Amino acid sequence: MTQVEQETGAPATAKLSFPTLTTMVVGSMVGAGVFSLPRRFAQETGVAGALIAWAVAGTGMLMLAFVFQTLAVRRPDLDAGVYAYAKAGFGEYLGFFSAFGYWASACVGNVTYWVLIMSTIGAIAPALGDGDTVLSVVLSSAGLWLFFLLISRGVKEAAAINRIVTVAKVVPILVFVVLALFYLKPHVFAENFGGADYAGSLFQQVKGTMLATVFVFLGVEGASVYSRHAARREDVGRATVLGFLSVFAVFASVTIVSYGLMPMSEIAELRQPSMAGVLESAVGTWGKVFVSVGLIVSVLGAYLAWTLMAAEVLFVAAKDDDMPRFLRRSTAADVPVPALVMTTLLSQIVLVVTLFSDDAFNFALDLTSALTLIPFLLAAAFAVRIALAGNRSGKGELAVAGLATVYTAFLIYAAGFKFVLVSFIIYAPATALFVMARREQGRRLFSPRELVVLAVSAVGAVIGIVALALGWISL
After folding, report:
1. Cα angle, residue 115 at apex, residues 109 and 120 outer, rounded to 5°
2. Separation between Cα atoms, residue 152 and residue 330, nearest integer Å
3. Is 123 helix (H, G, I), strand (E, B) or coil?
C-alpha cells in the first residue's frame, strides 16, 4: 500500500480531487500543537502581542502558501514537495539538507506527541510529570517501537484511522472556542490585553511566539507533497490556500478566547495540554476530560500520519539518488522499513534528550520549527528565482515570493542563537548520508560550492557542541 493509499484510502492510480487535497492540508496542519497554544502564548505575550503575532504569522504563512501554489503551477515537473524545490534551485547538497531537515523536523515533532500524551496522563499519574520524567520516556519509547511494528506490517486501516482522528481533533477545538466565547469574562480579557510584567516589550512578545506559530502551521505544504496525484494541477495551490485560511482562523481563535477566561500568568503555569486546563476553569472537570481524551486520540493518529510522512521523505529522496540506496528498500506491503527504522531511531534519541531540557515540550516544539525553516527558506528563495527569470511572472508574484523569503529569514532570527546551533548539530552529521549516496554513484563527493556549505554546517555544529558543553546555551 502506498503513502497515497494510506492517507486517502484511494488506489494509488486514482487522482486526488480538490476537496480531498484540501482535507489533507487541513488534516496535516490541525495537530497536537493547537492543544498547547494557550500556555505557550501566555508565557510570551498578552492579547495585543498575540493579535500582532497572528497577523504577522498569518501574512507570512499565507505568502508561503502562495509560494507553494505558484511553484505547483510553474514547475509541475517537481512533484516531490519542498525538498524538490531546494534541489532544483540550489543544487543537490542543499536539496539533500532540505530533505533531511524536513524529515528531521517530522521526527522531532513526533516527540512532542509523546510528551503531550504523558503530560496529559500525568494529571492523574504524577510519576509521569509533564512528560519529561524517566518513566515517561520509557513508556514513550515503548510506544515508539510498538508503532514501528504496526507500521512495518502495513497499515491498511490508516484511512479509517485518519477519519476518526480528524473528528477527534476538530470537534474538541470547535467546542472549546464556542464555550470559551460563552463564558468569556470581558474584565479578564481587558487585563490580559497589554501582557504581564514578565512578557517584556511588545516586540519581544511577538518574537517569542513565532516558533509556536510555525509549529502549528506545519503541513501547509502538504498538498505539494502529493501534487503528482492531483486531478488538476491548479487544485494543489487552491487546496493549500483554502486549507491554510481555515486552519488559521481556528488557531487564532483558540489563542485569543483563552485570554478571556483566566489571567495570562495562570494560563502560563498550566500543565500541557493547556487547552484542557483553560476549559476546566470555565466549565469544570468534564471540560478537561473532554479535551484530554480528544487530544490522546488525535495525537496517536497524527503520530501515525507523520511517521508515514517522514519515512516517505527519506524513501523518495533515496529513489532520486539523494540518499543512500538502502533507504529505497520496501517490503511486499510497500512499507519502506529502513527509512522507518531511521525515523523511529531519531525520535528515540530526541526523546532521551528531553530528559535534559528545562521544558521538554517547548524544546521539542521549537526544535521542530527551527529544523523546518531551512527547507521553507530554500523553497521561498527558489520562488524568487523563478519570478525573476520568468517572462510571464509579474511584480505581484515576485513580491509574494520576496515577502515569504523575508518572513522565513525573520523566523530563523526569531528562533534565536540556541536553536540555530542545535539545528547545525543535527544537520552536519547528516552529510555522512550524502557522502554514502555519492560514493554509491561513483561521483565526486563535493563541488567547490558544496564544500563551502559543508564548512559552514561543520563550524556551526562545533560551535553548538562547545556552547552546550560550556553552558552558553541550554536545552
Report:
1. 130
2. 10
3. coil
- Whether the link from the prior residue into 19 is cis, omega within 30° of 0, is no
DSSP H or E stretch at residue 347? helix 337-353
Q: Determine the Cα–Cα distance for residues 259 and 266; give it in Å rounded to an integer.
A: 10
Q: Please compute the mean of the pLDDT values over residues 110-134 and round it to a whole number.
A: 84
**What pTM value is reported for the model?**
0.80
Residue bearing cell 485569543: 256
User: Are 222 and 61 in contact, with CB atoms under 8 Å apart?
Assistant: no
CA–CA distance, 29 with 189 (Å, rounded to integer): 28
Scan for cell 527558489, then name that residue.
382
CA dist., res. 157 & res. 228, Å (int): 23
How many whole angstroms separate alpha carbon 263 and alpha carbon 189? 8
Return the C-alpha cell found at 258: 483563552
* Spatial CA neighbour of 106 closest among 248, 308, 298: 308
CB distance 6 to 330 below 8 Å: no
For residue range 403-432, list pLDDT tens digits in order. Answer: 989 988 888 887 777 888 888 888 888 888
Round to whole Å and give the CA distance between 348 and 351.
5
The CA distances from residue 109 to 224, 344, 371, in Å, are 20, 12, 10
| Residues 135/128, Cβ–Cβ less than 8 Å | yes
> Position 333: which residue type?
A
User: CA–CA separation, 203 vs 52, rounded Å?
Assistant: 9
Alpha-carbon span 176 to 287, nearest angstrom: 8
143 φψ region: left (φ > 0), alpha (ψ -120 to 50), beta (else): alpha
233/231 Cα distance (integer angstroms): 7
Position 1 pLDDT exceeds 50: no
CA 213 from centre of chain? 10
Q: Report the distance separating Cα 343 and Cα 144, nearest Å.
A: 10
DSSP letters, 23-49, are: HHHHHHHSSGGGGGHHHHHHHH--HHH
CA distance 55 to 63: 12
User: All 3 cell numbers of residue 361?
Assistant: 515540550
CA 209/CA 405 separation, integer angstroms: 19
Q: What is the pLDDT of residues 260-314, one digit of tens each?
A: 999 988 998 888 888 888 998 888 888 888 888 877 777 776 777 778 778 888 8
DSSP letter for 473, please: S
Q: How far is CA 50 from CA 38, 208, 314, 416, in A?
A: 10, 10, 36, 19
